[in-house]
UniProtKB/TrEMBL annotation:
Annotated Gene3D superfamilies: PmbA/TldD superfamily
Transmembrane segments: none
Family per record: Belongs to the peptidase U62 family.
Domain Metalloprotease TldD/E central: 122-223
Annotated source species: Qipengyuania citrea
Name of the protein described by the UniProt record: TldD/PmbA family protein
Length: 448
């Protein structure tokens, strides 16, 4: 696989080609990845897979008109044709008063932080197989597990490079390692499936694969023979594995492109106290070895640590160049880039700060409630803030986790849920968007 220097050189060559073809401004994004994974099932090798990909995307501006195009053809004639077509497309595009490159004074400069995103470890297929087997074996050893969907282990490397005619030119590489297991518990109509996985930048930061497998087995077993739950309003407690989605909905509503499209329930609420004053939601894009760490965003603007929610209030909107221009806002370093197309918006390494109570203390006074471990469906409207999802988990009775429950729906509105959110103390920074267990009182639960 190519390195950052080669990827960056390709980007620089491509934007120069675009200028020769008549573009006033241009930027190019190159991505490359390579991964190897091994999967086992019931103790036998099931698959060994290796994949590699390389892609480069070009965005050009002719006056206020722009176009984007991408390719995996890196032959000189192919890149020349790409640049020519992009400029031709831009000349036919409608004018966009807000598009453009980031101003030079907003660009990331200096050396930045060494984010330590790649450990240089390239495990052999035999090592991956051993880890996958260890995960599956531990899962199958849990009493009550009756079958397996398999265990797996993988390692990947990636490269990102961005160059633009505003003078920005940077590239970096990263890597990740993953262990996972998925198993079945119960028999016949009572069968239930669950999983566990963990991904880290450095293999040494991963827990033992047997621990991953044991978690998968225990999660599956505790779901066996679920019942329904009476309908009504009650406290709902969210497992960290699913609770991050609630904060993800907040980030989607804070996206400046959504605000510009009038497609966010937060419009008009930006000065409200949306959460309890003790709630803090922070972003740390410079966390060492973080899954979403970066020194700069997809347009070359510096990414900086900040509180997204402090004293219960949001800091503002997450912008890229186009949305900042449309809303007359400053750049916040949240542009995201795929292989082609216009930049979107994404945040890096988000976490809901831990609260004071332990999980046991958080649920101790709940006489009848729900502990959610799985969510289903797409019933979230970010325009209105309405929230309705299928769910399963465990009943809470007299402050203790009790029998499994399934085939239920939980509903509310996101503003009401935010105001009622109370976090526990069990925060772990392992996913890129992390939350502790948290409680929301007064949600409507529809069961039997």
């Amino acid at each position: 696989m190519i390195g950052p220097d080669t990827a960056l050189a390709r980007c620089q060559d491509l934007i120069q080609l675009a200028r020769k073809m008549g573009a006033d401004e241009a930027d190019a994004v190159a991505r490359a990845s390579a991964s190897e994974s091994v999967g086992v099932r019931l103790g036998a090798l099931e698959e060994v897979e290796r994949s590699e990909s390389e892609e480069i995307g070009l965005r050009v501006f002719v006056g206020r008109r722009s176009a984007s195009i991408s390719t995996s053809d890196f032959a000189p004639e192919g890149l020349k044709l790409l640049a020519e077509r992009a400029v031709e497309m831009a000349r036919l595009a409608p004018e966009d008063p807000y598009g453009g490159l980031a101003p030079a004074d907003a660009l990331f400069s200096g050396d930045g932080v060494d984010l330590d995103l790649h450990d240089g470890v390239d495990p052999s297929p035999e090592e991956l197989r051993e880890a996958a087997l260890a995960a599956e074996d531990a899962a199958r050893a849990v009493d009550g597990v009756t079958n397996s969907n398999g265990g797996s282990a993988s390692a990947s490397r990636s490269v990102f490079a961005l160059a633009a005619t505003n003078g920005f030119a940077r590239g970096y590489s990263g890597g990740s390692h993953t262990f996972s297991a998925s198993v079945v518990a119960g028999e016949g109509a009572d069968k239930q499936t669950d999983y566990a996985y963990r991904t880290q930048r450095h293999r040494s930061d991963l827990p033992d694969p047997a621990g991953i497998g044991q978690e998968a087995g225990e999660r599956a077993v505790r779901k066996v023979r679920p019942v329904s739950i009476p309908s009504g309003k009650m406290p709902v407690v969210f497992d960290p594995r699913v609770g991050g989605g609630i904060i993800g909905h907040l980030l989607g509503a804070m996206s400046a492109p959504s605000i510009a499209r009038k497609a966010s329930f937060l419009i008009g609420r930006e000065d409200e106290q949306l959460f309890d004053s003790a709630i803090r939601i922070a972003e740390d894009p410079q966390r060492l070895r973080g899954l979403r760490s970066r020194n700069y965003d997809g347009e070359g603007v510096a990414s900086v640590p900040r509180d997204l929610v402090s004293n219960g209030r949001i800091f503002g909107w997450l912008t890229n160049v186009a949305s900042a221009a449309q809303l007359d806002l400053s750049l916040t370093g949240h542009a995201s880039r795929g292989g082609g197309g216009s930049p979107g918006v994404a945040a890096g390494n988000i976490y809901l700060a831990a609260g004071e109570p332990s999980v046991a203390e958080l649920i101790a006074d709940i006489e009848d409630g729900l502990f959610v471990t799985d969510l289903f469906g797409q019933g979230v409207n970010l325009v209105t803030g309405d929230y309705s999802r299928g769910a399963s988990g465990l009943r809470i009775r007299n402050g203790e986790l009790a029998e499994p429950v399934a085939e239920i729906t939980i509903a509310g509105t996101l503003p009401e849920m935010f105001r009622a959110l109370v976090p526990a103390s069990d925060l772990e920074l392992v996913r890129g968007l992390d939350v502790p267990t948290f409680r929301i009182d007064g949600m409507f639960v529809a069961g039997q």
